[in-house]
Amino acid sequence: MNKRKLINALIMTLSTLSALVGLVFLFWILWTLFSKGLHAMGLNIFIYDTAPPGAKETGLRNALVGHLILVAVACAIGIPFGIMAGTYLSEFGKNSRYANFIRDLSDVMMSAPSIVIGAFVYAIMVAPVGHFSGWAGAVALAIMMIPIVLRTTDDMLNLVPQTLREAAYALGAPKYKVTMQIVYRGAKVGMVTGILLAIARIAGETAPLLFTSFNNNFFSTNLNDAMASLTVTMFNFATSPYDDWINLGWAAAFILGAFVLFVNIIGRMIIKKRGRR
Amino acid sequence: MLKRLTFLGLSAALAANTLMADRISGAGATFPAPVYYDWAYAYHKATGNEVNYQSIGSGGGIKQVSMRIVDFGASDKPLKPKKLDRKRLYQFPAVIGSIVVVYNLPGIKDMQLKLENKDVADIYLGKIKYWDDKAIAEDNPGLKLPHKKIVVVHRSDGSGTTFNFSYYLAHVNDDWANNVGIGKALDWPVGIGGKGNEGVSNLVKQTPYSIGYVEYAYKLKNNFKAATLQTKSGKWVTPTLENFKAAAKYASWGPKNHFYQVLALQPGDNSYPIVAGTFILLPREKTERNKKVTAFFDWAFKNGDAAAKKLGYIPLPASTKEKIRKYWKMHGIAPDQ
């Protein structure tokens, strides 16, 4: 065998092995999550609130509902801002200095540590008001969401062929109509995927919630009050010394993991479908 | 359309909430957290009022109530009257607990291991490194101590448990007093840190040959083994409720100095050395909110003794409870009848 082939075979084996190692860890995590989490699941998870260690009627209802509300409100704030900013960049700002500056800035924000965002929101929304609140938690999540939605919207709108826009202009459509009815329609699938991935990204965050929405041992849908979330509950319970709390922590991890996996798979499926068309 | 529906749903939820019972929020010490959780759970069942207590450590509790972010803070470190005036806080004790030195030593039973007070400090100073060190062995002639490194576990967060524990260490060991001192967060010479009593419990549970300090309730819940220590005068004393009570008898709290008193190292032949009150902090200007908090503790003082005892705490004596009620009246924050 000549040297070139030998090196080729060697590198092939090495890269295949590395890929396998990566996969092994992924499946290991999934397996642990499923085996431990599934075992901890039960009807009680959905009908009872978190209770002191040792209590009979214990579950995660408050954390589940709180988490859904926080993510939903974060979406209601983050998605419109992200889409509008992304639209500005792609359709209006284009390659101007200002637009590129915003692009760079949002890239920096995307990699900002989430705990820093939590501290920022604590300083502007918790400390001045004088209490923890669901609003603060949702805003912290929304801040994390905006750069992701912004970037994917910008990229997806850019993929819409320029000729399509020109055709619409030629028919006499005003710019807002071109943007909303032609460009958005062309980029719809990509934008939805970006939004789904952004949701999956923020749904698993603990750090931005730790001192914004804090935690609540009781069922609450009041956004002006501290609110329970799956991630913070999981953090507290998993580090606790009580077996029943640790089990609930696993159940929370399982629900969260399954949710994020589900959203990710849907996102991928949409991308694939578009590829086939 | 969908968004409008969510919005409607949310505003409906908001409106429904304002009609509901009282909600108060508290944060702080992990030391009394098990009993506060229990009280809050029972209080909710009995009255429908919600007390959301989160155990983030005494340091966090003092900080959050000073910034007026929670309705009450909880700390095992009593604040001095001057500091209370500066931060505009009221303070009263809620329950008494005890700090036990727990060990994960296979083959050695609960309370079998005897540790001299000064040796506990030497272990935490890193001067005693092995379990079969002469200093430990000479107090435990009957035990087969392994030649294993001692894994020292301490707190990583600002902690009232650490304050009381280091207060004790500083009074039994000059080296500790001079080089490390007393505080909620210390510059630890050796060891690994856990967050909260929960974190320390978790580490001790998982690490063979480790030693840690936790509130007695955490020892009970985790079936830990706790060391026999010494009274102030050097007599051996086991970590039992009886001996905790013997020390707690010496509590002489009074409303004049906002109940300031550290309970460690009380005199008496059966007084366990590290017993501590745990305190509630209230913002002075929030009279109406404070009444809701005192209503909860008033209820707990009346109905919560059994739960506290079951978890391993010592309820406050009736005389102290009366003093606290007087203190509330004095400051106009007694619960509305």
Could you walk me through the main structural features you see in this protein, from its secondary elements to its overall organization?
The complex is a heterodimer of chains A (about 280) and B (about 325). Helices cover about 75% and strands about 0% of the residues of chain A. Chain A is an all-alpha fold. The relative contact order of chain A is 0.15. In chain B, strands 1, 2, 3, 4, 5, 6, 7, 8 and 11 form a nine-stranded mixed β-sheet that branches. A two-stranded antiparallel ribbon of chain B has the order 9-10. Chain B is about 40% helix and about 20% strand. Chain B is an alpha/beta fold and about 325 residues long. Chain B has two domains: about 1-95 and about 250-260 and about 275-330, Periplasmic binding protein-like II (D-Maltodextrin-Binding Protein, domain 2, 3-Layer(aba) Sandwich); about 100-250, Periplasmic binding protein-like II (D-Maltodextrin-Binding Protein, domain 2), CATH 3.40.190. In chain B, strand 1, helix 2 (about 35-45) and strand 2 form a beta-alpha-beta unit. The interface of A and B includes residues 53 and 69 of A.
